[in-house]
TrEMBL record:
<dbReference type="GO" id="GO:0016746">
    <property type="term" value="F:acyltransferase activity"/>
</dbReference>
<keyword id="KW-0012">Acyltransferase</keyword>
<feature type="domain" description="N-acetyltransferase">
    <location>
        <begin position="50"/>
        <end position="245"/>
    </location>
</feature>
<dbReference type="InterPro" id="IPR000182">
    <property type="entry name" value="GNAT_dom"/>
</dbReference>
<dbReference type="Pfam" id="PF00583">
    <property type="entry name" value="Acetyltransf_1"/>
</dbReference>
<dbReference type="InterPro" id="IPR016181">
    <property type="entry name" value="Acyl_CoA_acyltransferase"/>
</dbReference>
<keyword id="KW-0808">Transferase</keyword>
<protein>
    <submittedName>
        <fullName>GNAT family N-acetyltransferase</fullName>
        <ecNumber>2.3.1.-</ecNumber>
    </submittedName>
</protein>
Length: 260
């Protein structure tokens, strides 16, 4: 088993941040720092961008437009970090960055927004460790109210992408299959809550309800913006909340001052 450690995002860990996102996917996690995506570096279709920048070479894992986008996003994050306007947690396995959690303040409330784990370290508790470190970092800064909107629970169904490729995303066949096979559970105060579709390669970046429950977060409502009751792609996200009181005695088992 790997030895996991974690560090906060800072000028000292920026190089690790860049290394991590170069190894997981094509972005550098600017959405929640800025509240919006950056526009594409080069406009147009994939073919038009390839004509300008060069075509992707999968054999060498070279994707020119993706590399340009990542470099620009990393430059933006670097400037935000220098201005102390970017918060996050990096998780390391034997010194190598393998996990990420982004958090930040929104008015009077702290928001935990995003998790990413390198594929070869998934299902080893990396995201849960990152979440605990984020809560501890918020506590160190004075605590307060923390909110997040995780999925209720994930579900991987290898048949669903096959049906979507065959019949189309909006097809009656897809809707019928989901109606007959999609798992759900009852949540107090919420009612029926559907699983969120994941794949064997990716997981939704919002985290899972069970991760937050382990640290004392409680469900306070349905996240209506992210949830969907469309029969072709149903999924349920909930709003979870934790109030941290920095004056409360420290609990060695986890972050101090957990209040229900």
């Amino acid at each position: 088993m790997a030895r996991f450690t974690n560090r906060e995002l800072s000028t000292r860990t920026l190089e690790d941040f860049g290394e991590f996102f170069a190894n997981v996917h094509g972005c550098a996690c600017t959405l929640y720092f800025l509240g919006k995506h950056l526009p594409q570096p080069v406009a147009g279709t994939a073919r038009e961008r390839a004509a300008i920048l060069g075509a992707p070479d999968r054999s060498r894992k070279r994707f020119p437009h993706q590399e340009l986008r990542r470099a620009r996003e990393l430059a933006v994050v670097t400037e935000l970090v220098k201005q102390k306007k970017a918060d996050g947690i990096l998780v390391y396995a034997d010194g190598e960055p393998v996990g990420w959690c982004q958090y930040g303040r929104s008015g009077e409330v702290w928001k935990i927004n995003c998790f990413t784990t390198r594929m070869d370290y998934r299902r080893q508790g990396v995201a849960t460790r990152a979440l605990a470190a984020a809560v501890a970092a918020i506590e160190k800064r004075g605590g307060g109210r923390i909110e997040s909107s995780p999925m209720v629970f994930p579900h991987y169904d290898p048949m669903l992408p096959k049906l979507r490729r065959t019949f189309g995303w909006r097809s009656a066949e897809v809707a019928e299959y989901i109606a007959d096979n999609w798992p759900s559970r009852e949540l107090p105060g919420i009612g029926k809550a559907n699983a969120c579709q994941t794949s064997n390669k990716t997981m939704a970046h919002m985290g899972t309800m069970s991760m937050f429950e382990k640290l004392g977060f409680e469900v306070v409502g349905l996240d209506e913006k992210r949830s969907s009751d469309d029969p072709r792609y149903p999924w349920t996200f909930v709003v979870m909340r934790l109030d941290l009181d920095p004056r409360a005695p420290r609990d060695r088992a986890g972050p101090s001052g957990l209040r229900r």
